[in-house]
Amino acid sequence: MSALPGGEGTAGVGGMPAGGVPGSAQGPADDARTVLEVRDLKKHFPVYGGLLRRRVGSVFAVDGISFDIRAGETLGLVGESGSGKSTAGKSILRLIDPTAGQVVLDGEDVTRAPVTRLRALRRQMQMVFQDPYASLNPRLSAATIVAEPLRNYGGVPAGEIRDRVVALFERVGLTSESMVKYPHEFSGGQRQRLGVARALALEPALIVADEPVSALDVSVQAQVLNLLMDLQQDANLAFLFISHDLAVVEHISHRVAVMYLGKIVELTDRRKLFEEPLHPYTQALLSAAPVPDPKSRRRRIILKGDIPSPINPPGGCPFHTRCPVVEPRCRTEVPPMKTVAAGHDVACHLHQ
Q: For position 25, what pLDDT does the model report?
């Protein structure tokens, strides 16, 4: 299967060709420290049935993923709905406990940390949620929402909290006069800025952003994305950016991991992924993305059927039931993740 031509990248934020978006993400320093290490992470949800409510199976939401993120780097995590992206993000932060695997944050094992230590670790890892309407308490003022982490975790004298909140509001582009407002008085983009300010309050090393702009208009999306990129550059933050929007991912990410049915099938830097995708699933995803040039033509790869149930995933390669270039061994042998070129890992028998 031929790779997509480099001149036919996905549409960028606001309809611009993403490869040429001004201010697109710059790579981290070569000597940047590794902030997050994820090794063979799994999350299986039990399924109960029968009169006695016995366990009859499992939902293999995340089934063995591994990657690293360095300081100042954004790793984009993409895939169809139901591929396990959000579950992976929540498992990394231990908002839900993983079934197996290891998550190491700045050299400390998060997965095995006791509750008392986990509370301290949460200062270093925060989350920006998808829904800017549901993620904010409607009964609290904006200032109280942003100040809540400072009060909960301590470390800031009570007399200095207001000054810190004012500085955070200015940092995310909100006026100090809006601190007395309640969430319903803000627009969607302003609410998401509140969520970003709350995540920044404790000065974390890692932020997991779970589709933070999917509920926003395109023009507001660009504002929030550029805000995240500016904050990353100022504070050397590491981002795990979860999204199904390829244009957004290409705009903000340094590297991209493609998930399918709980597994990562391809991992490489942004430019390689969008110019020369190797896995058939990645090629199909990119072929479905709209091109802003009406004269441009692209061969559309139509995938047959739906994504299999994570309760009963197929044997062999998880993508073989929909793959247009499936081989006999794909149905029985699980392809390992292999480095097929410098900085380009793929789990596909075609590239072993």
A: 64
Q: What is the spatial distance between Cα 242 and Cα 29, in angstroms, rounded to a whole number?
A: 22
Instruction: Give one DSSP letter per residue of 247-305, joined into a string.
Output: HHHHHH-SEEEEEETTEEEEEEEHHHHHHS--SHHHHHHHHHS--S-TT------PPPS
Ramachandran angles phi, psi of 39, nearest 5°: -130, 115
How is residue 78 written in tokens? 């993409």
pLDDT of 52 > 90? The answer is no
Annotated domain spans of the chain: 32-343
Q: Residue 17 carries which side chain, given as an amino acid letter?
A: P
Q: In what order do the strands lie in the sheet with 108-109?
A: 54-70, 34-49, 100-105, 108-109
Over the stretch 253-282, which tens digit does the pLDDT of each residue have?
A: 999 999 999 999 999 999 999 999 999 999
Is the overall model pTM greater than 0.90, yes or no? no
Exposure b/e, 114-146, CB count within 10 A at least 16 = b:
eeeeeeebbbbbbbbbbbbeebbeeeebbbebb
The span from the CA of 106 to the CA of 132, in Å, is 29
With cut-offs at 50, 70 and 90, classify the pLDDT of residue 187. very high
3-state secondary structure at position 243:
coil
CA 21 – CA 252 distance, rounded (Å): 10
User: How is residue 121 written in tokens?
Assistant: 């670790």
Correct CATH for 32-343 of 3.40.50.170, 3.80.30.20, 3.40.50.920, 3.40.50.300: 3.40.50.300
CA–CA gap between residue 9 and residue 15 (Å, rounded): 12
pLDDT in tens, 219-248: 888 889 999 999 999 999 999 999 988 889
d(CA 60, CA 309): 9
Beta strands 108-109; 338-341: pairing state? unpaired
